[in-house]
Amino acid sequence: MKKSIVISGVSLLLCFGGCLGPAGESAIDPKAVEAQIRMVASNHTAALDAKDVEGILQFYAEDGIMIMPGEPIKYGNAWIRNYLEDLFKTHELHETIAFIDIRIIADRVAASYRFEQQVIPLDGGSMVIQRGKGLCILKRSNTNSWQFEWNAYSYDNPVGGE
Asked: Would you say 96 and 113 are in contact if contact means Cβ atoms under 8 Å apart?
C-alpha cells in the first residue's frame, strides 16, 4: 500500500511538473497572475453595471460548467446570454466579487471567492441583497484573458432574503 501511495505521489508531481512547460521556459509570475485574476473581478463588476451582455460573456469559457444553488448543472455559456437579457429587462444587478485564495495550477487558476449581489426591480420594488461564496477554476482564453471554466457557488442567506 505504501508503495502505491509513493508512486502515485511521484506520478502526480511529475505530471504537474511537466504541465508547467519545457525547461528553459520563463516561470509564471504568481504576483502578476494574482493581479490579473483580481482585475477579472473588477472588470466583471463593471460589465454587469453597464449591462454589457457581450462583455460579461467574455468572462465565461464556451465550454464552462456552472453549478448554482437549486439548479441543474449548466454547461457552456449560451444560457448566460438569455438569462442576463431577461434579467436586465426587469432588474438592476450590481455584483461584487472578492477573490480570497488564488492558486496557480499550470495554465489554470483555482480560486475561492465571496460575492454580494444587489438586485433591484425596475418596477420600484425592494432591493434584495444576496451574499455567498464560491469556488472557481479560470483558464486562459485564446486571447490570453482569464475566463471562468468551472464555477460553483452557494448563498450565505436564503435566496431573496437579507
From this structure: no
